[in-house]
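Fill in residues.
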């Protein structure tokens, strides 16, 4: 029997955290091993229990969740972080994805969808809440062949790594180039695809069937 995936919950609302913990207690493949309500508690909890997945609210008192995620991923780029928040605006989602958060779920989703989001991230796959993917058609985009054909081989490679959940530093290390070079390529990719943010890139990948199902 495989061991359950170890989860850390970081959310300042105790009632929500208790509800999520209770829900996950009935899910044999997921085990809550730590909880925290702010940055200091989060760092201690994650460092002390080494969970496979950190489920993290974006809006926290003091240091916000995106800064916490950035620090946790700086310490260990292999950590898998799922943002779970009521805040789902373009800026927060894009900032989270840019810093290496692998998934972004909404507290408006059902319990079953949140469990699926956690499992998806636990498997190392990108996850975006359906409400974030629905707006993919809000701006004109090229068709799949034309959009991808506009990218060079290196840009296509970086595009695929970006939408798979790797932050710029990890992409740079994997491709043995500088983070600045990755950012330059990312800017060109955004321009060529008519996209504005990391969220748009993930939306395009979802539309083109390039995200794991």
């Amino acid at each position: 029997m495989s061991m359950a995936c170890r989860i850390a919950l970081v959310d300042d609302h105790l009632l929500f955290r208790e509800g999520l913990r209770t829900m996950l207690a009935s899910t044999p493949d997921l085990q809550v091993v730590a909880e925290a309500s702010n940055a200091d508690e989060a760092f201690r909890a994650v460092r002390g229990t080494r969970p496979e997945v950190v489920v993290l609210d974006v809006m926290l008192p003091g240091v916000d969740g995106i800064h916490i995620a950035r620090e946790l991923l700086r310490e260990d780029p292999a950590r898998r972080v799922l943002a779970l928040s009521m805040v789902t605006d373009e800026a927060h989602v894009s900032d989270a994805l840019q810093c290496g958060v692998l998934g972004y779920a909404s507290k408006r989703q059902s319990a079953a969808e949140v469990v699926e989001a956690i499992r998806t991230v636990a498997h190392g796959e990108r996850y975006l809440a359906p409400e974030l993917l629905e707006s993919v058609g809000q701006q004109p985009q090229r068709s799949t062949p034309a959009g991808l054909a506009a990218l060079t081989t290196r840009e296509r490679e970086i595009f695929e790594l970006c939408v798979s959940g790797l932050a710029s530093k990890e992409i740079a290390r994997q491709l043995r180039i500088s983070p600045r070079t990755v950012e330059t390529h990312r800017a060109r990719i955004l321009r060529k695809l008519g996209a504005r943010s990391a969220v748009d890139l993930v939306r395009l990948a979802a539309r083109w069937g390039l995200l794991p199902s």
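The radius of gyration is 17 Å.
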